[in-house]
Design goal:
The protein is mainly alpha-helical and 77 residues long. The chain is 38% helix and 8% strand. It has two helices and two strands; from the N terminus they run αβαβ. It has helices at residues 21-39, 58-67; strands at 45-47, 70-72. Strands 1-2 form a two-stranded parallel sheet. Helix 1 (21-39) runs parallel beside helix 2.
């Protein structure tokens, strides 16, 4: 119906506190794979849990940039 459905961290861990490539991949790719399976089509959108710049480690940022996903965050106040 025209709505985008995206992924949002598999276990809702703070990506700003994750530095291990395996942990980052589990959070990001695990969520993307789960949404893709549920939709029956590729998930291309990802919203960062907690949404702030501090909630994204350099490792997570690199993985998201290389993934080609549309990435969403929020800045409060």
């Amino acid at each position: 119906m025209g709505h985008r459905i995206g992924a949002h961290n598999d276990a809702h861990r703070d990506l700003g506190k994750l530095h291990s490539p395996a942990d980052v991949a589990a959070e990001i790719q695990g969520a993307v794979d789960g949404v893709s399976a549920a939709l029956g089509s590729p998930c291309r959108d990802f919203a960062i849990a907690f949404g702030q710049p501090s909630n994204l480690s350099d490792e997570a940022r690199r993985q998201l940039v290389s993934s080609g996903l549309r990435v969403y965050s929020c800045v409060r106040g």
